[in-house]
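User: I've been trying to design a sequence by hand for this structure and keep getting stuck. Would you show me what you'd pick, starting by listing the structure so we're on the same page?

Assistant: Good idea, let's start from the same input. This is the structure you sent:
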């Protein structure tokens, strides 16, 4: 037979080399997995708990701040201030537009904050699950406490009233937009009134000049007398009627402008005040619920550690 016993020896030698290579690789993988598990248990877990404690404190502080803001807005709403009779200008419109942009940016930042937390927890959960799979003999066992805590974190995060916060912020942004649009209408009407007032003054000056010509002339010539009787008084009456009609139009547009000013004030003082109050109230509820969620997760960690200690002893 070709090769004989030498071929079999060569095959066995190759198998021994392959077995040794596999053994070394498995040992290296096991060593690496042990290090990863050690990092998870001794470094990551305490850091996660520390993060939860920081988030709980931050939520409590934010809750206190939003409660203070809500109280201030309540006091502002119950304060009967005198009617503000100022008109909107370009500077005020710019400020309103900037406020709308800031509120919308606020809403987007809040949404991104929630999304970032969810993405972080998804990635963390997958990584911990992978580390847990490295440990031999885990088939059918329960999830480790850290993984349970992370999953609970993700589940409870979905239950927080974050949607209500974004809805209130969006509603506030829409109210500010309405104020901005109304300010534009008010300014347009104001420019119309200014233009009509200028035209009225010119018409009034022209009428005065014509009155002086008709009524103030001392000429007794036949031509002057004939002008007064045949043409002057008739034209004077027509000019007076025309000016009176134009003045009536001007007064109506002034009244329309005042109504616009009052509407702007109503939108600003009522809708924006109500909008900010709703936002801060929703943030109070969210911050309070968040603080409780983090406190529960920390408490679960403490209970899990005590259970592990009892089982170990």
């Amino acid at each position: 037979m070709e090769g004989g016993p030498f071929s079999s020896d060569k095959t066995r030698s190759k198998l021994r080399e392959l077995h040794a290579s596999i053994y070394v690789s498995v040992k290296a993988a096991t060593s690496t997995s042990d290090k990863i598990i050690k990092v998870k248990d001794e470094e990551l877990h305490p850091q996660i708990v520390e993060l939860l404690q920081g988030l709980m404190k931050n939520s409590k502080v934010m809750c206190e701040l939003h409660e203070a803001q809500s109280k201030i807005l309540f006091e502002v709403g119950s304060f009967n201030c005198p009617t503000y009779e100022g008109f909107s200008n370009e500077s005020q419109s710019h400020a309103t537009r900037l406020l709308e942009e800031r509120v919308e940016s606020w809403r987007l930042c809040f949404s991104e904050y929630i999304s970032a937390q969810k993405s972080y927890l998804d990635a963390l959960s997958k990584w911990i699950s992978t580390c847990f799979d490295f440990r031999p003999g885990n088939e059918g066992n329960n999830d480790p406490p850290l993984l349970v805590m992370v999953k609970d974190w993700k589940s409870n995060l979905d239950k927080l009233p974050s949607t209500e916060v974004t809805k209130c912020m969006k509603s506030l942004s829409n109210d500010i937009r309405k104020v901005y649009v109304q300010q534009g209408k008010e300014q347009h009407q104001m420019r119309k009134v200014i233009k009509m007032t200028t035209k009225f003054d010119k018409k009034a000056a022209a009428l005065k000049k014509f009155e002086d010509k008709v009524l103030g002339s001392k000429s007794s010539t036949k031509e002057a007398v004939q002008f007064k009787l045949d043409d002057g008084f008739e034209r004077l009456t027509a000019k007076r009627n025309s000016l009176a009609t134009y003045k009536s139009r001007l007064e109506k547009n002034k009244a329309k402008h005042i109504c616009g000013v009052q509407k702007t004030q109503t939108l600003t003082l009522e809708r924006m005040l109500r909008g900010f109050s709703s936002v801060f109230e929703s943030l109070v509820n969210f911050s309070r619920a968040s603080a409780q969620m983090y406190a529960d997760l920390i408490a679960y960690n403490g209970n899990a550690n005590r259970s592990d200690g009892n089982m170990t002893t």
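That's my pick for every position. To get oriented when you compare it with your attempt: Residues 190 and 257 are 6 Å apart (CA to CA). Helices lie at 4-77, 90-134, 145-159, 162-215, 222-312.
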